[in-house]
Amino acid sequence: MTYATQVDKSHYSGLAYRSSERWNSYYHQLELVRTISPGALLEVGVGQGVVARELRAEGVSVTTLDIAEDLQPDVVGSVTNIPLGDQSFDAVLAAEILEHIDFADVPQALAELARVARRHVVISIPHPGYVFSLSFKLPLLPKIDLLMQVPFFWKTHVFNGEHYWELGKKGYPVSRFIATAQHAGLQLVTYKKYADDPGHRFFVFTK
Q1: Among residues 19, 38, 157, 173, which one has the fewest Cβ atoms lying within 10 Å of its Cβ?
Q2: Which residues have CB under 8 Å from 158's CB, separation 6+?
Q3: Has residue 5 got a pLDDT over 80?
Q4: 23: helix, coil or strand?
């Protein structure tokens, strides 16, 4: 399938991109990338440019790729057909990208992410559900966050103009996504969900 740009640049200056959950998502993307210490990173999806800006300030060589020319990425292209060479980057970050394509095209996208990465691929995907969380802090001890979520496994996802699918909904369990990634040549290192950003699931894969 050929995909067109879904939103224009003004979309990323809206209130949804100024929420605490959105900035918490950026924080967790940055932390996961830092754990793998890439010298060169491909970020698929420009968004507000926050993650690329912060990583560049830390000395990481970041190349951005997006289908939307008005976001002024370094490379214009699709995640299903990345116009870059094999193993061009130590790592690839694709945060809130794969839900914007039909799941039938996700295997090809994952294969492309694996192809251009030398070592790691970091991915985050919407994973909605009913959330129950508890946070507490004791003196001299780190903050403790407890999270329980019931995903919307009984709901059929309906394309809303942006998301073709979401994790946890009918037909899209986490296990199916992990199996799809493994078939594309990626091995799961870890996957996480955070109490301060319960709407996303984060994955780190290695080649």
Answers
A1: 19
A2: none
A3: no
A4: helix
Q: Is the pLDDT of residue 10 over 70?
A: no
Closest CA to 106 of 192, 26, 186: 186
Single-letter amino acid, residue 166: E
- Tell me: pLDDT of 34 over 90: yes
Q: Domain 9-206 belongs to what architecture?
A: 3-Layer(aba) Sandwich (3.40)
Q: Note whether 27 and 183 are within 8 A (CB).
A: no
Kindly report, residue by residue over 80-99, the tens digit of the pLDDT: 999 999 999 999 999 999 99
CB 23 within 8 A of CB 43: no
Tell me the CA distances in angstroms from 121 to 32, 80, 114, 133, 176, one per residue in order: 10, 15, 7, 28, 17
**DSSP-assigned letters across all residues of 135-200:** EE--TTS--EEEEEEEE-TTPPP---SS-S--TTSTT--HHHHHHHHHHTT-EEEEEEEETTEEEE
Ranges of each domain in the chain: 9-206
- How confident is the model over 144-171, as a mean pLDDT? 94
Amino acid at 68: A
Classify residue 47 as left (phi > 0), alpha (psi -120 to 50) or beta: left
User: Is pLDDT above 70 for 175?
Assistant: yes
What is the gyration radius of the CA atoms in the chain, in angstroms?
17
Q: Is the dihedral of CA 7, 76, 42, 62 positive or negative?
A: negative
